[in-house]
Write a structure and sequence with these properties.
The chain is mainly alpha-helical. The protein is built from 14 helices and three strands. Helices cover 66% and strands 3% of the residues. Helix 3 packs antiparallel against helix 5, helix 8 packs parallel to helix 10 and helix 10 runs antiparallel to helix 11.
Length: 297
């Protein structure tokens, strides 16, 4: 009897063969530990996965830009209430399965946020915190996730830099990001000029962007956009639609007709993109765009 009971209490061989499923370190719940070594291991894993993502997205800049834009579009589509009703009152259509690249980028974005919060919780301002924030800000600028890069940028400049100074080229770089974010995304030109004076930033391109926005000079804006680096171009993207709409209004009030190439030069978009995305109702006849017609007397 005793042997029968003891045998019944032993775990079966089937249960012994079961193993816990492998867990992804970046997808685990909770923040990384305040232990400094754990944070550094977590950061190395993020960098490794990020480089793999960039390699898988493609070698060409256009392919990588589309991969980053997928997360930006996803963030814009998520502005709906939890009960599934759109702000206008319509219902949400059946969700479409996310591409693998979008899922991976979402995991990386959340992991970077968790690492950043763990660094803040442990009050780190050492070299590791500096390098981690530099990496996170650059990555989040490319995804246009201002909820992540904006607080990280302020923390790097005003909390970490006083304790662990950035090298001069990187300080120049991130102050320029701060100014472009203020001017292009927030439209706060007064504060942008104030920050430029406070940090004594000497950057011809940033200065020309500020002047272009102050004077509504779309010609200079599009010209500078073509020569800045990818991070600055991404930040300038926040102001693109406003510059484009202003250019279209000026063309509409100033001309009866112009060349198609001139319209594309002033707006930074092809004619097909203007028709599709900006609902331009002007008529195209060959290479000429008819904006208005003279009323018959």
């Amino acid at each position: 009897m005793t042997s029968t009971l003891s045998a019944s209490r032993l775990p079966s061989t089937a249960w012994n063969r079961l193993k816990p499923p492998p867990t992804d370190l970046l997808e685990s719940y909770g923040l990384p530990s305040k232990d400094l070594k754990v944070q550094e291991t977590y950061y190395n894993k993020i960098v490794e996965r990020y480089m793999q993502f960039c390699a898988a997205a493609g070698r060409h800049d256009d392919a990588l830009d589309k991969a980053f834009a997928s997360l930006s579009l996803e963030n814009a589509d998520q502005k709906i209430s939890p009960n599934g009703v759109l702000p206008s009152g319509g219902t949400v259509s059946t969700p479409v399965a996310k591409p693998t690249s979008s899922i991976e980028l979402s995991v990386l974005t959340m992991s970077m946020r968790k690492l950043r919060e763990a660094i803040v919780a442990s009050s780190r301002t050492d070299t590791f915190a500096q390098r981690a924030y530099v990496f996170i800000i650059r990555a989040m600028i490319l995804t246009a996730t201002y909820e992540s890069y904006h607080p990280a940028l302020l923390h790097l400049l005003y909390k970490i830099h006083p304790c662990t100074p950035l090298p001069s080229p990187e300080l120049h770089e991130f102050v320029s990001y701060h100014i472009l974010d203020l001017s292009c995304r927030l439209g706060d030109l007064c504060n942008a000029f104030s920050i430029r004076k406070r940090w004594d930033l000497q950057d011809k391109r940033v200065e020309m962007v500020l002047k272009a926005l102050v004077h509504d000079d779309w010609v200079t804006f599009w010209r500078i956009r073509g020569v800045v680096d990818g991070y600055q171009r991404k930040l300038m993207g926040w102001a693109e639609e406003g510059v484009r709409k202003h250019a279209l209004k000026c063309l509409g009030r100033s001309y009866l007709g112009v060349d198609k190439a001139y319209v594309e030069c002033c707006t930074g978009r092809t004619w097909e993109e203007l028709k599709l995305q900006n609902s331009v109702g002007w008529e195209l006849d060959g290479d000429k765009v008819t904006i208005r017609r003279m009323k018959a007397k």
